[in-house]
Amino acid sequence: MIQIPSETYKIEVGSLLESSLADVLNSKFTNSKKVILADENTFEHCVSFLTSNFDALSNAEIVVIPAGEENKTLEICSQVWETLSDYHIQRSDLLINVGGGMVTDMGGFIASVYKRGIPFINIPTSLLAMVDASAGGKTGIDLNHFKNQLGTFAHPELVICDPEFLQTLPKEELLWGQAEMLKHGIIASTEHWDAVKKMDLESIDSTIIAQSVTIKNDIVLKDFKEQADRKKLNLGHTIGHAIEGFMLDFNPLPHGRCVAHGILAESLLAHKFGTLSQADFMEIKATIENLYPELVLTHEQLDPIVNLMQQDKKNRGNEINFVGIKGIGEVIIDTTYTLSEIREVLQQLFMRS
Ligand SMILES: NC(=O)c1ccc[n+]([C@@H]2O[C@H](COP(=O)([O-])OP(=O)(O)OC[C@H]3O[C@@H](n4cnc5c(N)ncnc54)[C@H](O)[C@@H]3O)[C@@H](O)[C@H]2O)c1
Questions:
Q1: Alpha-carbon 40 to chain mean position
Q2: How far is it, in rounded angstroms, from Cα 27 to Cα 42?
Q3: Is the pLDDT of residue 207 over 80?
Q4: Under a CB-based contact definition with an 8 Å cutoff, are residues 165 and 100 in contact?
Q5: What span, in angstroms and rounded, lies between the C-alpha atoms of 331 and 185?
Q6: Ligand 1 centre from 184 Cα, in Å?
Q7: Which residues are bridge partners to 254 per DSSP?
Q8: Best CA proximity match to 30, nearest among 3, 14, 54, 6
Q9: Most buried of 5, 66, 188, 239, CB within 10 angstroms?
Q10: Per-residue CA distances from 309 to 43, 65, 107 (Å)
Q11: What are the pLDDT digits (tens) for 69-93?
């Protein structure tokens, strides 16, 4: 079991059966009611493992919500809050969120607001939730199609990432998680980049997950409120979010795929207009193109995408804020490129004529 200390809690990576879950349930929460929150897929694939292997959970109440980002809403939260109230859940009771980042984000939000905050444990079951949403204390839900507009910073009691759950995760979902792991490699470690790019998606082990979690966790511990270093985690997201937001209305693309395209475009920006070497750029390009489907944009789509970048909440003043890449393993925050540089790169990478 790999243990990664975070702010007030531990992130454990390894088998649930070897984790401190049983100890925590049987010590701090002996007399607490336990509620498990899952979506319909994690209810089917993950929850029975918990209820059948942990005596303290055999009688837990189970609340199942519909799967998918479109359900990360205030309406679903209200339904869960009403259910918690029907179950007479008190401040000393415990919510256990079992699912991808949608469930852990929303469950954390539900717990942090209900009765001004009840304790919660996160058991992430998707790769993305294990390597990214597991650290950093952000909870949240979407509002009118805008992502994570309502949220809190709140710490779970414990997070356990058991790679065994990845066996039932669809392959594309693994790829979207891998994009965030590649990002961690570019931000902080050539070794991690090398390991992640050739990772076997059929058997992802605790070590590589823990390396990604550690990179994110180290950054978050230095800069919890995103004043400086935490901005590094936005690599690939300035362009990725704009593509994702633009596509939302007619051809929604998964977040992880957009991040991969964003990493590619931001690498070309760094190569052409910054200090990223040709060799490192070609390495990033070959890796992304090998793993992810090609993205083709039309000339008419260019302006709306650039407009969305200009509205990004990370910007200051009129400048679009990027993470600059110096090399695989080293990035700098608060980098800017001109609009014509950004257009040139998007045209070069994503337009066919
Ligand atoms: N809090 C943070 O710091 C942070 C960081 C990154 C992402 N997020 C959030 O995470 C969300 C994306 O997370 P995600 O990619 O896990 O999406 P998700 O939770 O929607 O899960 C993706 C799909 O996989 C299914 N699934 C999850 N685990 C499974 C399993 N073991 N077996 C079978 N199916 C399974 C889900 O039901 C869903 O259909 C977004 O809402 C994003 O905003 C939060």
A1: 20
A2: 26
A3: yes
A4: no
A5: 10
A6: 18
A7: none
A8: 54
A9: 239
A10: 37, 32, 29
A11: 889 999 999 999 999 999 999 999 9
The pLDDT tens digits for 167-191 are: 999 999 999 999 999 999 999 999 9
Query: In terms of DSSP H, where are the helices of the chain?
Result: 21-27, 40-42, 48-53, 74-86, 101-113, 127-128, 171-188, 190-197, 206-222, 237-247, 255-273, 278-291, 299-310, 339-350
Distance CA 325, CA 263 (A): 10
Ligand 1 atom 6: the closest Cα is on which residue?
A: 133
Query: Residue 129: CB within 6 Å of ligand 1?
Result: yes
Q: Which atom of ligand 1 is nearest to the CA of 166?
A: 31
Give the pLDDT band of residue 227 (cuts 50, 70, 90): confident
Q: What is the SS3 assignment for 102?
A: helix
Do residues 25 and 120 touch, judged by C-beta distance below 8 A? no
Three-state DSSP at 167 gives helix
Q: How many CB atoms lie within 10 A of CB 75?
A: 8
63: tokens are 């609340």
Q: Which atom of ligand 1 is nearest to the CA of 106?
A: 41
Between CA 25 and CA 30 the distance in angstroms is 6
Q: With CA atoms as reference, report the closest residue to 182 among 260, 295, 126.
A: 260
Instruction: Please give the pLDDT value at position 319.
Output: 84
Establish whether residue 244 lines the binding site of ligand 1, counting it when its CB lies within 6 angstroms of any ligand atom.
no
Q: What is the mean pLDDT of residues 155-166?
A: 98
Tokens standing for residue 279 = 């060799």
Q: What Å distances lie between residue 142 and 17, 159, 344, CA to CA? A: 34, 23, 32
Residue 290 has pLDDT above 80, yes or no: yes
Who's near 115: CB < 8 A, 6+ residues apart?
89, 90, 91
- Residue 105 CA: nearest ligand 1 atom is 1
pTM, to two decimals:
0.95
Dihedral Cα 166, 266, 296, 308, nearest 10 deg: 100
Q: Is the pLDDT of residue 318 over 90?
A: no
pLDDT at 79: 98
